[in-house]
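Much of what follows relies on a compact textual record of a protein's fold. Each token is a code from a learned vocabulary of local backbone shapes. The record below shows the convention in full.
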Amino acid sequence: MPVRFLTALLAAVAFLPALPARAETPEPPDRIAAAWRTDHLSVDERLAIPATELDRIRSAMRTAGVPVYVALVPRTPYLAKKRLDWPTLLHARVGEPGLYLVALVDDNYWSTSAELYRQGGLRGRDLTSVRSEDKQRLDVVTDRPAPQIVRTIQHASTAYDGRPLPAVPAADLEPERPHRGLSVTDKSDRAVYVGLSVGGLLGFLLTLVLGLRRRGRPKGSGSSKSIEPRNLRLKADGKIKQAERALARLDRRRNKTTQLLDQRDDAFRRLDAARTLRADQPEDVLASAGALVLARQAERLASGAALQPPCFFNPTHNPGTVKVDWSDDVEVPACEWCASVVRRGDTPSGLLVPAKSGLLGHDRKPVPYWTLDPEDSPMVASGFGALSDDLVDRISGRKDDVR
């Protein structure tokens, strides 16, 4: 009996290595590249894309004048964490010239990442320059895939053979935004004039209420004052000019490496987004802080330095070079000072911004920016780029990572 048992055991051990190994799930770029062998439009099986959207994309691909590879993929936690350079990874697997474009969807927000690869020796316009000259690029809707993908294909066609860039159809444009009304300064001035005109009795009552509120505040609240908006705007404008000079110096350099060229393109995108914030929301504290962060990153990249995330708690501080625990299973970058506060078990005061409160909305108590609704601001939603490096894409409204 022992002999038979030993013989059976040895046979089983000898047989185990011959069992087929369990195949690992291919990486997303491998799956997309494999799908492109039969169809240059790859749609993830988890997505339900209307046929009309796919037909528009295929029509644009056929008339592009350049080979086009398109993939539609849902943004999963794995992809958000990996932050893949889609065009480079996919071109390395396919190896053919053409436009490589990946569209990712997060809820109903579509973003694109694209790169144009030419045959050896062929030259043409840079895809980034075509996009920067497109005055309608910020107005294309982001809740459907076809508008952004078709526009990116049109950019590639213009860059490839110089054909004119057509106008965006009205159905693909965001509706005109209503007038934003009075600025923050105008509203503040109006509140002051109303308060002065009400009369002595109401003015006395208002003064009494404000005085009681100040007496009721805890000591040390002076450290919770929001940042001076004018100083922040001046700081952002100054950093934008420094980034422009750094890019100009980089453009004058000869024999730039591929890495420097990539950094230059990334720096240009961030500088362009910083300018957009200052132009579209000149009085907004969050926009000024976002412009400061992006311009600072653009200057670093143009100078050949590595990209650094901002401090999550206060993006106007030094860059976030230290990782700290912020909540369950979430780490955020922080500057040395904020990191030391977290290590003590406290919460840094952070970037404080005005929040309407009090009678007539005149008393604006400062609150940490991360307590605001992330749906109202891309700076809050991304932690100024500390939580996810897609602030440029959110500001542009299309996440177009073309170079």
